[in-house]
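User: Please fill in residues for this 334-position structure.
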C-alpha cells in the first residue's frame, strides 16, 4: 500500500487507488501507518516542492479528494441495508486526522470546521477529538472547529444526537442548537433539534446539563437525570417533564419506541428511519399509536398500523399517503 499512498500524496493516484486507500484506512493500525508515512513524506519536502504550488494549496486539494471519494464510497453501500450504522466515525477519524496532519498550524492562522452529516435512513456514530462519543440520528448535521478540545468544546447541531461526554471541568462541552445552548461536563444526554420541529427537546440520562438562552426571555436551568426540557422556539418557554431516558434514546441502537403519539408525529419518525416521504389526511392525523420498531421493514410497520387502526396506506410515485379506511370499523370512536 505504500506506493499507493505516495502516489496519492503526489496527486498521481487513480480513482480506483484512492478507493482502495479509503478502504484500507478503515483499520486503526493502517491509519497509524498512514500518518507516519505522511509525516516522513512531508519532512522530505520543502514549501516549493508541494504538488500544485505550495503546502496550503496542496492541503485543500487533498482534503477535497478524500471527502469526494468518501461520499462515493458511502453512496455505493447505502442501499445494502434499510437501517445501518454509517461510517461517519471513519470520515471523522480518517479524514479529520488527515486534515489535521496536512494543515499543521492552521489554528494559528485561520479557523476551519469539521462537518459531519448522517444521511436520512441511517444512524451514525462519531468519536470526537476529546474522547466524547456521539450518535447522530438520521438527517442530522454536527459541526465543530479546529480548536475543539484545545481551547473550546463547542458544537453546532441541527437534528438529533446522543452525547456520551468525556469529563473536562476546565473545558465544558457546549452544544448550540438554534438558540438554545446545552452545557455539559461529563454526562450522557440526548438533544433533538430538528429545524421543522416546534421545540428543542433535551433528555438527561446521567450527570447534569445546563440549558441556556440569551436575549429576550433568557433562561438558565439545570436538568436532573430522568428529566426532559422542552424549549418552545416561538414562545421561548421551557417546560420540564419526567421521562424514561432509555426509551427516548434507544434510537441509537436501532430501536424506536413510539408511545401514545399521533399519526402526524409517527410519520416524522418513520421518514427519518426509512428515508421515505409521507402524507397524512386530516381525518387520521390524530389517531394515536404505541409500538416499538426494532429490525422491522417499513412494509411490516405499515401493515401493523393498518391492522390496529382504521387507516390504509397508498403509494403514488415516491410518496406514501395515509388515509381513512372506510371498510373498517372506526376503532378511534370506541
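Assistant: Residues filled in for all 334 positions:
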Amino acid at each position: 500500500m505504500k506506493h499507493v499512498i505516495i502516489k496519492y500524496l503526489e496527486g498521481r493516484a487513480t480513482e480506483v487507488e484512492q478507493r482502495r486507500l479509503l478502504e484500507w484506512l478503515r483499520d486503526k493500525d493502517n491509519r497509524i501507518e498512514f500518518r507516519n508515512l505522511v509525516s516522513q513524506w512531508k519532512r522530505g519536502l520543502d514549501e516549493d516542492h508541494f504538488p500544485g504550488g505550495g503546502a496550503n494549496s496542496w492541503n485543500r486539494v487533498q482534503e477535497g479528494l478524500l471527502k469526494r471519494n468518501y461520499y462515493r464510497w458511502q453512496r455505493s453501500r447505502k442501499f445494502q441495508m434499510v437501517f445501518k450504522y454509517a461510517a461517519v466515525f471513519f470520515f471523522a477519524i480518517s479524514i479529520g486526522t488527515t486534515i489535521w496532519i496536512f494543515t499543521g498550524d492552521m489554528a494559528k492562522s485561520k479557523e476551519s470546521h469539521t462537518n459531519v452529516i448522517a444521511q436520512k435512513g441511517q444512524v451514525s456514530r462519531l468519536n470526537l477529538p476529546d474522547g466524547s462519543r456521539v450518535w447522530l440520528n438520521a438527517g442530522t448535521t454536527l459541526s465543530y472547529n479546529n480548536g475543539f478540545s484545545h481551547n473550546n468544546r463547542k458544537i453546532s447541531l441541527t437534528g438529533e444526537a446522543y452525547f456520551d461526554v468525556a469529563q473536562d471541568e476546565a473545558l465544558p462541552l457546549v452544544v448550540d442548537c438554534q438558540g438554545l445552548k446545552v452545557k455539559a461536563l461529563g454526562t450522557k444526554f440526548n438533544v433533538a433539534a430538528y429545524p421543522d420541529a416546534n421545540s428543542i427537546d433535551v433528555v438527561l440520562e446521567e450527570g447534569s446539563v445546563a440549558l441556556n438562552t440569551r436575549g429576550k426571555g433568557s433562561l438558565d436551568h439545570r436538568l436532573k437525570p430522568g428529566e426532559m426540557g422542552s424549549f418552545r422556539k416561538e414562545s421561548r418557554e421551557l417546560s420540564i417533564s419526567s421521562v424514561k431516558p432509555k426509551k427516548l434514546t434507544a434510537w441509537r441502537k436501532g430501536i424506536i419506541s413510539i408511545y401514545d403519539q399521533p399519526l402526524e408525529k409517527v410519520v416524522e419518525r418513520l421518514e427519518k428511519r426509512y428515508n421515505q416521504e409521507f402524507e397524512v389526511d386530516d381525518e387520521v392525523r390524530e389517531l394515536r399509536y404505541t409500538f416499538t420498531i426494532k429490525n422491522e421493514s417499513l412494509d411490516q410497520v405499515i401493515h401493523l398500523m393498518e391492522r390496529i387502526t382504521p387507516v390504509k396506506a397508498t403509494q403514488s410515485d415516491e410518496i406514501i399517503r395515509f388515509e381513512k379506511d372506510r371498510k373498517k370499523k372506526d376503532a378511534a370512536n370506541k
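For context: The two ends are 68 Å apart (CA to CA).
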